[in-house]
Amino acid sequence: MTLTKEVKKKKQPKQGMLENVMKQFNAAADMVELNPNIKKILAVTNNELIIHFPVRMDNGEVEIFKGYRVQHNNALGPYKGGLRYHPTIDIDSVKALAMWMTWKTSLAGLPYGGAKGGIQMDPKKYSNTELERITRRFTYALGENIGPEHDIPAPDVNTSAQTMAWIADTYMSTKAPSERSKNQHVVTGKPIGSGGLEGRDRATGFGVFLTIKYWAESKKIDLKDKRFIVQGFGNVGYWAAHFLELEGAKMVGVQDAFGSISKADGLSVEHLFEYTKNNNGSVQGFTGSTAVEKDDFFGLDCDICIPAALGNQITAENASQIKAFLIAEGANGPTTVEAEKVLREKGITVIPDILCNSGGVIGSYFEWLQNRNGELWELDEILAKIDKKIREVFRKVLKTSEEKQIDMRSAAYFIAIERIEKAYIQRGIFP
User: Fold this and answer.
1) Is 312 helix (H, G, I), strand (E, B) or coil?
2) Backbone φ, ψ for residue 187 (5° rounding)
3) Which of 156, 171, 272, 419 lies in disulfide reach of 84, CB 3.0 to 4.6 Å?
4) Does residue 376 contact residue 370 with C-beta atoms inside 8 Å?
5) CB count, 10 Å around CB of 2?
């Protein structure tokens, strides 16, 4: 009896994520007055793949893993989206994430559609050699369902540049020797020595920072001495905090999978990052910090809140506690529709995920182009390219928001859906 209750409890947020993205989509579709036939197409995914595959463990035992790849829509170009390794992922959460990728790539004006995937597992339970075999076997099982001009994965939660290097190598190994180098851009987010882009590691967090910076400029707010909290101190959370600290802002709270800490006069981003490297990735116990109860984290006194962990973290239950005047969504779908209503009533601005964390996919696009064209760009050039793109998109969202007197999420969806609708109208539907 207890076991069933626990399972149900765990599954709710995942079902909520799909429900969340559908509510956002339906509201935006009504606002855009989306063609009903196109709405039918965009309300469902093009392809959903569930793969069970065996992998031999270090002890000689064989374990069966469950992998996913969902391709939502490719009206604007090849499918694009990350791969995450997490025990809670299932088909519904992957469908939700794939849909968000469609809106994100469309909003950014990229020639991509949306996809997402991953493996239902806790990577911490496996050795590096096991993770390599799991990744390579999953890639082989995906086969022609991914490809440099068809569906291009990237890193996401619990996956890294190393994961992408294994995928690229496995995929390229399945091709004829003369064709291998043409397939290097089957994934993005690779290590620099294996065709990766300089700065791709910080692209998402840099984008989060830029959207905060441009929002603050539009409101004539100085970021110096502004206090911010970060949920999730991984790649996205760390880099967003790093760039904010350079602007003179102070990080006063951090939450990760292990615990929550705070310090009213500010936590050093770099010192904390170095500390986590020697503390099993955890922020707990950092010198001079105070432990905070998990449920009290979003109630910390601050100006800016950056949820950069998993989906459905800001809910109707905790939204009323938030003291920040700005929420910058570093994660995908961290705020539920119900929570957003509470935030709007409180006058809190939300920079939506499809705008706020789009620096990652913009960086991925530049890596894809670099591989495709045989070019090499330097870090300064790349950060300038990401900055220019995000500035353009941010201004477009802000202008639409002000002209139509709607919130930023509605404005972002309006632009994204309108672009896809235009593509369908111009091309028609086969046959």
Assistant:
1) coil
2) -135, 160
3) 156
4) yes
5) 6
Instruction: Retrieve residue 245's tokens.
Output: 């600290």
Per-residue model confidence as pLDDT tens digits over 272-301? 999 999 999 899 999 999 999 999 999 999
pLDDT at 429: 84
SS3 label, residue 253: strand
Give residues with Cβ within 8 angstroms of 160, minimum separation 6: 189
| Contact residues for 233 (Cβ-Cβ < 8 A; gap 6+) | 241, 254, 255, 256, 272, 273, 276, 283
* Beta carbons of 187 and 153 less than 8 angstroms apart: yes
Task: Given the residues 80, 95, 116, 250, select the one marked as catalytic.
Answer: 116
Q: Is 341 a catalytic residue?
A: no
CA–chain centroid gap for 80, Å, is 12
pTM of the entire predicted model = 0.92
Instruction: Please state, in angstroms and rounded to a whole number, the distance separating the CA atoms of residues 289 and 126.
Output: 31
Q: What is the mean pLDDT of residues 178-206?
A: 94
Exposure of 60 by Cβ count < 10 A (0-12 exposed, 13-18 middle, 19+ buried)? exposed
Helix (H) or strand (E) run with residue 397 in it:
helix 379-404
- Residues 6+ positions from 403 with CB-CB distance below 8 Å: none
- The structure tokens listed for 34 are 């989306």
Sign of CA dihedral 68, 72, 78, 82: negative
Radius of gyration of the chain (CA): 21
DSSP 125-166: GS-HHHHHHHHHHHHHHHGGGSBTTTEEEEE-TT--HHHHHH
Check residue 246 and give its pLDDT. Answer: 97
* DSSP-H helix ranges across 197-250: 203-218, 235-246
